[in-house]
Amino acid sequence: QVQLVESGGGLVQAGGSLRLSCAASGRTFSSYVMGWFRQAPGKEREFVAAVRWSGGNSYYADSVKGRFTISRDNAKKKVYLQMNSLKPEDTAMYYCYALGDISRDVYWGQGTQVTVSS
Questions:
Q1: How many CB atoms lie within 10 A of CB 73?
Q2: Residue 10 has pLDDT above 90, yes or no
Q3: Contact 97, 114 (CB under 8 A)
Q4: With 11 labelled, which of 30, 34, 103, 116 sits at a CA distance of 20 to 30 A?
Q5: Using an 8 Å Cβ cutoff, are 118 and 64 in contact?
Q6: What are the C-alpha distances in Å from 91 to residues 1, 30, 56, 101, 106?
Q7: For 14-31, what is each residue's pLDDT tens digit?
Q8: What pLDDT is recorded for position 31?
Q9: E strand map for 26-111
């Protein structure tokens, strides 16, 4: 059974930093894209960042470029999202996801809340 478990969310002041973690288990993710989406109250879920489990380029939403960094630790089967210079508009539930390159299977975590106060 595939599981994605997020952690690291919390309350932070504007300008602060948080690091989210996503622990993946239940299968091999070598041919998967791993990443993060977020959803603020009353808004649609939006893409934040992604990286291939096998390596290569990272991808970011324009709204987080230069502030957020996605990384992965293959040995620990974890994906991270380092968030710096946080803004109140970054407040949202952050979800980890895994998307199969070939299978197109999609898995989601349960989310971790990030709240940025002004």
A1: 11
A2: yes
A3: no
A4: 34
A5: no
A6: 30, 31, 28, 29, 24
A7: 999 999 999 999 988 888
A8: 87
A9: 32-39, 46-52, 58-60, 68-73, 78-83, 92-100, 106-108
